[in-house]
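Many introductory courses stop at the sequence. We go one step further.
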Amino acid sequence: MKFGRSKNDASKPVALPERFDTVTLAVPSGERIPARVLERGIDTLAVAIVVPMKSLSARELKGMVLEFEGARGRARLRGEFEIPDHSEPDVLHVTGPYSVEVLQEREFVRIKSARPVLVYAGGDRMQIRSYTVDLSGGGFLLAGPDTLKVGEEVKFQLTLTPGDNAISGTGKVVRTDSRGRRAVEFEGISDFDRRRLVRFIFESQRAERRRGLMEDGYGS
């Protein structure tokens, strides 16, 4: 499948999910369909529905919205949705996607999460092993040490999952709380690592909701 630039050349570029990212397709009936990005062009996407279901109708395709976790929160895209090959009704082609809403754009979602983090301070002269108290797409609250000063710039390596590559970048200590914990705001982090972090936060929230349902007796 070839991907090029659509008729929306003159429009403002919009952030798109990456190849292999998990997305959600929302149809006018309210149904939400899990899918995965197969290909990404300049302003085109190919996505595959990952659950068995009947072929989508023209009305469902016309009113469809694609949702995904971006660096600035949960983004929602519209565009021209079509099924290019009706022998593969679970593969959709999206042309000219444009943003209709970004949820939580001004403030990143924050979760309580203790993750190991290695902090380099004092021009890399000091190496500190600590852990996070909470996490967001914009930074983390660090459980000490009290040697870090507000305004100090640091480098960090944050481990989300044992065995996976650490998320690395630079940040600045922006405040301390009443318990002496340091809040670090990201200053330099790759888009790829921020997407990994946002995805981890999103999946952690989903896991918490599932646990809550099970504890309340509503789980299956």
